[in-house]
């Protein structure tokens, strides 16, 4: 467990999370698919979620990517995900992607969760630069970045192409330790 708060806790993704992960992503598909299309596509069915978790657990063992669940404490249901990806061990750099279910948004959980995951990334993994890449229209994600101590660095031109859309400019936020 990397964080244990009053309302939620954060832990590494486990096989036992398949059902709750699938429910979270299926029930939030419409609001998450624009910016997390690969994660949504990989979790359409319960069997897909089991395969996704197995693959991500292999990635965690290889230290190529880390996936954490944000869990509601009373129910132990998966309320959100934090993915630490695009790891560059030479540069000691990684990028966060994250999401939270509709019924849990607006509580400040993701801000706390990103701070906790940042502490894990720097203290346990030795990373020095953490990034969040968000579209300016995704106000919630931009606010999480800013409120978690990440600073805007630059606009990345045409770097993300959502399904059935033209390429989008994305905003790069960084936290340097």
- What distance separates the N and C termini? 22 Å
What top-tier CATH class fits best?
Alpha Beta
**Taking all residues together, what is the mean pLDDT?**
96
Strand content: 25-35%
Query: What's the CATH architecture?
Result: 3-Layer(aba) Sandwich
What is the CATH topology classification name?
Aminopeptidase
Order of helices and strands: EEHHHHEEEHEHEE
- Considering the protein shown, what is the CATH homologous superfamily? Gcn5-related N-acetyltransferase (GNAT)
Shape call: globular
Helical percent range?
25-40%
What does it look like?
- Its EC number is 2.3.-.-.
- Belongs to the acetyltransferase family. RimJ subfamily.
- Keywords: Acyltransferase, Transferase.
- The chain has 177 residues and is α+β, with helices and mostly antiparallel strands.
- It has a single domain, classed as Aminopeptidase, CATH 3.40.630.30.
- The protein is built from 6 helices and 8 strands.
- The chain has helices spanning 18-27, 29-32, 37-41, 46-62, 109-124, 139-147; strands at residues 3-4, 8-12, 66-72, 78-88, 93-100, 129-134, 151-160, 168-176.
- Strands 1-2-3-4-5-6-8-7 form an 8-stranded mixed sheet, sandwiched between helices.
- A hairpin with a 3-residue loop joins strand 1 and strand 2.
- Helix 1 (18-27) crosses helix 4 (46-62).
- The model has no long low-confidence stretch (mean pLDDT 96).
């Amino acid at each position: 467990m990397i964080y244990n708060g009053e309302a939620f806790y954060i832990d590494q993704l486990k096989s036992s999370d398949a059902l709750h992960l699938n429910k979270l992503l299926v029930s939030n598909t419409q609001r998450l698919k624009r910016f997390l299309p690969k994660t949504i596509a990989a979790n359409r069915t319960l069997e897909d979620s089991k395969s996704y978790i197995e693959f991500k657990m292999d990635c965690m063992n290889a230290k190529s990517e880390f996936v954490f669940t944000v869990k509601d404490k009373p129910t132990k249901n998966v309320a959100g995900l934090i993915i630490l990806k695009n790891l560059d061990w030479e540069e000691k750099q990684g990028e966060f992607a994250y999401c939270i279910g509709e019924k849990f948004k607006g509580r400040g959980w993701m801000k706390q969760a990103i701070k906790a995951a940042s502490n894990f990334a720097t203290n346990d993994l030795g990373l020095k630069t953490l990034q969040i890449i968000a579209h300016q229209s995704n106000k919630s994600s931009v606010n999480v970045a800013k409120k978690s101590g990440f600073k805007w660095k630059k606009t990345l031109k045409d770097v993300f192409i959502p399904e059935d859309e033209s390429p989008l400019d994305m905003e790069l936020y960084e936290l340097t330790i």
